[in-house]
Predict the structure.
Amino acid sequence: DKFIHTFPYLLFLSLPLYALFLKLLYIRRKQFYYADHALFLIYLYIFTFLHLLVFFGLRTIHQKFDYWWIGLIMFIFVAYGIYYAYKSMKKFYEQRGLKTIIKFLIFNFLAFTTITFLFVLFFFIALLRL
């Protein structure tokens, strides 16, 4: 229970780290400041939270009724979320497709590694508070 209450702190800490990752990935782009990357990520966080809200609603319906086509809709929904994140990155940073794909994959690897590390760290902190 204490760990679940630390989840907002986890997200709060991840945002500036992710902005730093984007700043480093686009270091040669002088027109983007650290705050620009942070604002882009806030936009992406909002999209992700709304997307997850709908996804969890679909998952609840799928668990309740077990229709095969709801699982297909969930898969398409997740695929669209990934595509949307890539497309928004491509549009915001105005780079070509291959460069954006490479940076998108690097960014997602760094983000996954960081969120995993923070998740474990906050889990142990929650255990120590017991």
